[in-house]
């Protein structure tokens, strides 16, 4: 659904939060942010209607959203979201990593979920407006960041099943440390064979809440088996690896080739795309193709696959040590993280934190 007023410049109204956290409360949160637990003092809210297009952009105090109990999102799940971070550089400046790519992916998700496409310049302006009032929430300790969660949902109160005519876009932000609390210790992954994440022609490539809701029961199985994440297989043959519940997966072969699943039912990760680009820049061969679960299992056993890692905005690059299935285990829970995994992670985070040049022009300054 194209928006009607894409060309109009958005003038944000700003309402300061009179009940913003005190300096002491702020210091406590920033000292130990965790992941997704604490939120800044403000949020962005932009309305959309079929007749009026995008309008009424606001920065307002962070707080509950009033919803009619008949709001379509509560019944039919018409919702999409994004995830990206703001990084503080040593000179104090605040930068984001490839935000246009997140804006573009949100547009693709919107098309799939029959939601209006938010123009890229509005998406980026929303991040800048939030940083203008909440910059103190971008932490500066190593490996910390401010995690932005842009999201959009059907607000219209109507129980007929059709795309909503009233939608809102929001951005909230959360100071964040590592997603996995074990640092760089390799994680264990549970292979789900009872549940698929996405079907052919379904919503797997969109970043929409339903994909995560349908994966929760499998994630629960993963926890029960001592694993941090769940690996989903394709739903047609149940043979090819797709992705984890909240991140992409990459295998490294003995000869240095990086292999990652190609599928139209997984999320096109921006971290994965960037990591593979950095590997290609170093001369590594990269294969984007179908990867069977047997290739992973047998490759680890034979030594042909030497490293496996997960990647995503929240996970950054996280080594995978062990794959656990109902009747097998591959890899070693106590294995050290692979050297290529670690050096690609370092290169990516060095770019994000401004510690080395940004050869692809991925960084965008948000506070100037
Ligand atoms: N796959 C899923 C299901 C995700 O939720 C994410 C995280 O956003 C990713 C992959 C990785 O995407 P990105 O690197 O753009 O964060
Ligand atoms: C992200 O990495 O941004 C995600 O949305 C994944 C989720 C596990 C937090």
Comma- or semicolon-separated keywords:
single chain, 368 residues, alpha+beta, nine-stranded mixed beta sheet, 8 helices, 18 strands, 26% helix, binds pyridoxal-5'-phosphate, binds 2-OXO-4-methylpentanoic acid
Architecture overview:
With 368 residues, this protein is of the alpha+beta class. It is 26% helix and 29% strand. It is built from eight helices and 18 strands. Strand 16 and strand 17 form a beta hairpin. It is globular and about 60 Å long. The two termini are 32 Å apart. 2-OXO-4-methylpentanoic acid is lined by residues 83, 246, 312-314.
Bound molecules: pyridoxal-5'-phosphate, 2-OXO-4-methylpentanoic acid
Mean pLDDT comes to 95
Q: Strand tally, please?
A: 18
Please give the alpha-carbon distance between the first and last residues: 32 Å
Largest sheet: 9 strands, mixed
Summing up helix and strand content along with how strands pair, one would put the structural category as: alpha+beta
SSE string, helix = H, strand = E? EHEEHEEEHHEEEHEEEEHEHEEEHE
* Estimated radius of gyration: 21 Å
Number of discrete helical segments: 8
Helix percentage range: 25-40%
The low-confidence parts are: none
Percent strand equals: 25-35%
Silhouette:
globular
């Amino acid at each position: 659904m194209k928006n009607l007023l894409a060309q109009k410049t958005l003038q944000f109204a700003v309402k300061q939060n009179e009940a913003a956290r005190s300096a002491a409360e702020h210091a406590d949160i920033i000292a130990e942010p965790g992941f997704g637990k604490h939120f800044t003092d403000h949020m962005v809210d932009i309305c959309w209607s079929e007749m009026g297009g995008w309008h009424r952009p606001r920065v307002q105090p962070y707080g509950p959203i009033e919803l009619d109990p008949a709001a379509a999102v509560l019944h039919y799940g018409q919702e999409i979201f994004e995830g990206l971070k703001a990084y503080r550089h040593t000179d104090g400046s605040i930068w984001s990593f490839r935000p246009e790519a997140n804006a573009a992916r949100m547009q693709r998700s919107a098309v799939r979920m029959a939601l209006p496409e938010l123009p890229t310049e509005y998406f980026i302006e929303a991040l800048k407006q939030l940083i203008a009032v909440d910059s103190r929430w971008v932490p500066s300790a190593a490996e910390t960041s401010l995690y932005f969660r842009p999201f959009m949902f059907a607000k219209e109160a109507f129980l007929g099943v059709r795309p909503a005519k009233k939608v809102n876009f929001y951005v909230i932000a959360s100071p964040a440390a590592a997603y996995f609390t074990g640092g760089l210790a390799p994680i264990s992954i549970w292979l789900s064979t009872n549940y698929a994440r996405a079907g052919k022609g379904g919503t797997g490539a969109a970043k929409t809440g339903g994909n995560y809701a349908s994966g929760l029961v499998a994630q629960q199985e993963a926890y029960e088996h001592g694993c941090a994440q769940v690996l989903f297989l394709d739903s047609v043959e149940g043979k090819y690896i797709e992705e984890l519940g909240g991140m992409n997966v990459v295998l490294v072969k003995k000869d240095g080739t990086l292999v990652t699943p190609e599928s139209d039912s997984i999320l096109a990760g921006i971290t994965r795309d960037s990591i593979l680009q950095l590997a290609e820049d170093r001369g590594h061969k990269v294969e984007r193709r179908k990867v069977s679960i047997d290739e992973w299992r047998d490759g680890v056993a034979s030594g042909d696959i030497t490293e496996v890692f997960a990647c995503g905005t929240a996970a950054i690059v996280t080594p995978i040590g062990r794959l656990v299935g109902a009747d097998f285990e591959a890899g070693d829970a106590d294995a050290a993280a692979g050297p290529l995994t670690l050096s690609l992670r370092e290169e990516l985070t060095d770019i994000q934190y401004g510690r080395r040049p940004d050869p692809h022009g991925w960084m965008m300054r948000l506070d100037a």
